[in-house]
Structures are given as structure tokens and as C-alpha cells.
Design a protein that fits this description.
Layout: H1 2-14, E1 19-20, E2 32-36, E3 39-43, H2 54-67, H3 73-79, H4 87-96, H5 106-111, H6 113-129, H7 155-166, H8 181-185, H9 193-198, E4 203-217, E5 223-231, E6 234-240, H10 242-248, E7 257-267, E8 270-280, H11 281-288, E9 291-296, H12 302-311, E10 314-324, E11 331-335, H13 344-351, E12 356-361
Parallel strand pairs: 1-3, 9-10
Antiparallel strand pairs: 2-3, 4-5, 4-7, 5-6, 7-8, 9-12, 10-11
Helix pairs in contact: 3-6, 4-6, 4-7
Length: 362
Amino acid sequence: NTDKLNVFRQELARLAIPLLQPDINRSVASFAVEDHDGGEAVRYALAAVKVVGTQAIEAVVAERRANGPFTDLGDFATRVESRTLNKRQIENLAKAGAFDCLEPNRARVHGAAEAIIGVAGVASRERGSQQESLFGGGAGAGAEVALPNIADWTPMERSAEEFDALGFYLSAHPMDSYGKALGRLGTVPLARIERQVAAGTTRVKFAGVVLSRQEKTAKSGNRFAFVRLTDQSGVVEFTVFSELLSGARPLLEPGTPVLVTADGRLEADLLRLTCVGIESLDKAVAGSAMGLKLYLGGLAGLSAISGVLAKAQGGKGRIAVVLDADDETHEMEFELSRRLAVAPPLRAALKALPDVIEVVEL
């Protein structure tokens, strides 16, 4: 039950107990306690990754306990029976970060899921026929998995894929990317909305990522929806009635960041929020952002930066670039003449580029 898991995750955070990501070399089928940085932490269960299941993971853990940790993806593929895991299970384990200890680029592991299953199949058949492995030394020993040559997911893509595999955001929240922009927009953290409404505030503005939308039909025949939203502080539910719902549906898809204005009231100590306005958070941020400053480690990254900026939409944001001079004791800073719509996806795309040391919001 991912809703309950998210509640438990928030309770662990309140108690300052780390919840460690799933790890193919450390996790077991169920949640477990392990030593971590001089204290104790909870290690995420591999069987709690969507579509994976207990039976498959128990077989993987039994192999690991019998013959030691997996050293790389090839070693994993040759030691796990091909009937144990399928392509989709491998993909979800990659999305959840379970293979980070073997290959930190999750996009490459996800793209190699079919190749991993293929190597596992060859090794399983060789074990079954008791033939000498073509790789030498036994069934599949020393086999390599061909990984696609692709860039890793951006932080926001990584969060979205992790959410898809786990049902909530574990290692990072996509709202982390919005930083100072939420303050400029005057939003309230979700965990503080009830307190503000109880203190007499009747209209609140908040932002978050859509978790779910459940539509219903009223007795009048009009459609309305219950929408669940999340930020780093928690989860709220608000109602969208028919006059807004028809135009707002594209914004109410799971994973979409939105800016919401709602009327709030307490009924029998329950918070009721009725949406009176909703818009794309990225568009709202782009309209309020001052700009970005890029710190570069060298000139080699300029062409890649130029390519990303060329695709960006025009707007009000300034783009400044800072790089070290040849003597390494001075910096050179210049500003682009073109103004851009500075939203978190652009910042994330720039930060992921080679030679970009840091991207700072102005």
C-alpha cells in the first residue's frame, strides 16, 4: 500500500531515521534495519518495488548470500536464473535505484533491461545443459551486459521514474527544484495549510505535484474531481468542480507540477479545500524568475549549453555564465543578450551538462 508507505516515510523523516533506497546488494525482500553512519536506518524492501514481488527477490537474495555480492551487471545477469526476473521487473528496479551500486546511470540500466535478461537466459541454458561457458570458467562467468550510450536522467526525470516504481518520491522530491521561486509566488507549504485555515485564513495559494485525480458525477450530472497533491512537507486533497475541471484536466495528470488557489474551511476538524484557480507551476515560475547563473569548469561545455538554451522559450529571465580565466585566479562573467523563460526543467537540463559545476538562481 504505497499511501501507507508514504505515511511511514514521513514519520521516519520526523524521527530523523534515514530511509535508504533499495539496493540489489544490501536490501532483502522486506524492510530491514541496518547500521548507517554510526546509527540505524531502514533499508527499503526490494519486494516493495512495484511489479517485482517477494518470490523473485527471495531467489536473488539467496544467490547473493550463497556466493557474495554482485560485482557488476554482467555478474548479476549470469548468477540470477532467467525465470526469476523479467524485463519489466528489471526496469522498475533500475527506476528505483536498486542497481546504483553496480551502475549509477539509471537510464543506461533501464535501457539494458532486455540485454540483462538475454545474458541471464544464456547462462541459465548453459547451466541446464552443463556445458562449458563460451565466456570461460563456467556458465556465463565473465559475461558483460552491453549498456546503451545514453545520458542519465535529469533530477526531475529521475524523481518521476522513481515515483513510477515506488508510488512516492523517496530520494528526492521534484519540488526541490523550485527553490526560491515558491517564495516569490507566495505559496504556503502543504503541511501549514490547515494551521492557516484554523487561524482564520479563507483563501490559500499552494504548489505541488499531482499524485492522483478521482472524478465523480454529482446528482446534478456535473463532473467534479478529488485531486491529491504533494510537496516536500506532505500531501493534501482538494476538490475541483465542473466549471474549472473541463479546462484543468491536462494539468491534473499525475506527475504534473501545479500552482493552486483554493478556498479553505474546517468541517468537524477536517480540512476542506475547494479549487478556485489552477495553473502550470512551470509557467508561473518562468514568469517570476529573475534568471540563472551558470558556473563552468571549462570552455568545452559551451556548445552543449548553447544547444539547450537554443531550445528554451523566450521570457524575462537573465542567463549569466561564469568561467575561470586561464591563470585560474580570476573569473570571467558574461550575460546572454536573449532573455528566457527560466523554469526548473531548464535549470535541471543545464545542471546535467558536462563542465557545468553549478547553476544558481538569481
